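user: Kindly work through both lines:
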Amino acid sequence: MVLKVILVSCVIGIVSWVFTPSALALTQIKLSELSYHKCPSEIGKGSVTSGTTMAANCFIVTGKAQNGTNKTVYDADIFGRIYDANNNSAMENRNRLGSIKEIPPGVSDFELRISVAANQPEPLKLKKFKAAGFSAQVRK
């Protein structure tokens, strides 16, 4: 009886070792060449800031995403800080700004839509931007 338990345990151990799914490790993505421009009027018309009815300006943040791996990265969350011309936070208490659905190996373009309170003066300052995603799709 003990011998059967040991044998079954060994078989289960070997099978689980051989057929283990690949880990979904977080992959860091470098973001560079950041800039922004106002949204086209058809996108930004009537924008309000999150949770309020306060008027907002719509902007598109653009840049380059560098995936240094040889695999596509999926669902990469974008983190960063945005300040107005007076160094006031334009996105108070928000570090996660959005996401990039898919980043192939190498350098590729990305864009992110943001809304900033209309009373915050330009130019905006984009600081500490980075992204992190997964080597396989996790959100479907």
Notes: The helical segments are 2-18, 41-44.
